[in-house]
Amino acid sequence: MSKKKEIFTQLRVPGGEVTESDGVVYAFHHAGGSATSFVPFARAAPRLSWRALQLPGRGVRMSEAHPSSVAGIVGEAVVAMASEMGAGGEYVVFGHSMGATLAYEVVRALMAVGAGNGDGKASGADAELAAAVEEAAAAAGVAMETVCALPMPKALIVSARSAFPVSASPRTW
């Protein structure tokens, strides 16, 4: 049995005991960063569950080959999110710099596969993203029905600033 590949890292901070009902933030880091780039945000908003992307070739995924395509990263991220969230729960997608591009593409991929409608059929105009999600789902053994049952995020938040000011932390919803 192969070990499940961890795409997202759960950021834990002192006093940060959270439940899914507090909300989930899927965070996508900048090109030179890693999941730990979002620790200041997790400290500033400890009631949220911070799930930070860890790209292959970085951090705990250092031994993996660097990604060869944005679509491949996006497909893996969408499938991991669907596996974690299922059909319920509120979440937002947050990206900084290059991560903003990835976050945007994740939302586009969710639309391309008809997320939220639960029918398991790719229905969007963006065939490359839909195909990447279907390929990642097949590789992970996740049914497309599971992916399509994932609701759309409550918000897409992007940042292009060179530093994360703590005052810019998201508020709980």
UniProtKB/TrEMBL annotation:
Domain Thioesterase: 25-114
BP term (GO), one: lipid biosynthetic process
UniProt cross-references to Pfam families, sorted A to Z: Thioesterase
Extent of the signal sequence: none
Family to which the UniProt record says this protein belongs: Belongs to the thioesterase family.
Protein name: Thioesterase
The species this protein was found in: Thecamonas trahens ATCC 50062
